[in-house]
Amino acid sequence: MNNSNLNLLVEEKRSLLKHFAGKFTTDPDEKEDLIQETLIRALKSIDDFIKHPKLMSWLYVIMKNVYINQYRKAKRTNDIHETYIGLEAYNTTESNKGENKFVSDDIEKAMCNLSEENYQIFQLFLEGYKYHEIASYFGMPEGTIKTRIHMTRKKLQKQLKVYQLK
C-alpha cells in the first residue's frame, strides 16, 4: 500500500475515531491527542493495520488502552501530589534545594550509566507503560523486559544506596 492510499484510509477512519474518543472525553484537545496516539500505535503495526479484518474494533481497543494508560498515569501523579502536599503541611523545616540538586544529579548520572536500550526500557516503565506494551515496542519477550527492568532497578538501588532510608 502506498502513502496516498494509507492517507486516504486514515482520513476515512478519523471521523469514526473522533466518535470513539467522544466516549472517553469531552475535551476537544484530549480527543485529538487520543486519536493521534491511537493512530501512532496502530501505524507501528502497519501490516496489521492494513490487513486487519475488524479494523475499527482493533482501533477501538487500542484507543481504550491508550486512554486507560493515560488515566492511570494521571491518577498516579495525582496520588503522589496529594501524598506530598499532605506531608508538606506537617513539614516545618525548609528543604535544602542544593541537596535536592545533588540527589537529582546523582540519579541522572546513575541513569546515564545504563545501556541505551535499558535506559529506554526503564524510561517507558517509569512513564507507566505496561510490560507487554514495552515488549511489543522493542520486539522482545515480556519476560526479557521484566528481567531487564528488575536488573536495572537493582543496579540503580546499588548505585544510589547512600540515599536509602534506614
Automatic annotation (TrEMBL):
Q: Which SUPFAM superfamilies match?
A: Sigma2 domain of RNA polymerase sigma factors, Sigma3 and sigma4 domains of RNA polymerase sigma factors
- List the Pfam families: Sigma70_r2, Sigma70_r4_2
Keywords noted in UniProt: Sigma factor, Transcription, Transcription regulation
Q: Which Gene3D superfamilies match?
A: 1.10.1740.10, Winged helix-like DNA-binding domain superfamily/Winged helix DNA-binding domain (1.10.10.10)
Metal-binding: present as a keyword of the record?
no
CDD domains of this UniProt entry? Sigma70_r4
The chain positions of domain RNA polymerase sigma-70 region read 9-77
Q: Which domain of life is it from?
A: Bacteria
RNA polymerase sigma factor 70 region 4 type domain segment(s): 105-156
The similarity comment for this entry is: Belongs to the sigma-70 factor family. ECF subfamily.
Q: Which NCBIfam families match?
A: sigma70-ECF
Kindly provide the name given to this protein in its UniProt entry: RNA polymerase sigma factor
Q: What is the lineage of its organism?
A: Bacteria, Pseudomonadati, Bacteroidota, Sphingobacteriia, Sphingobacteriales
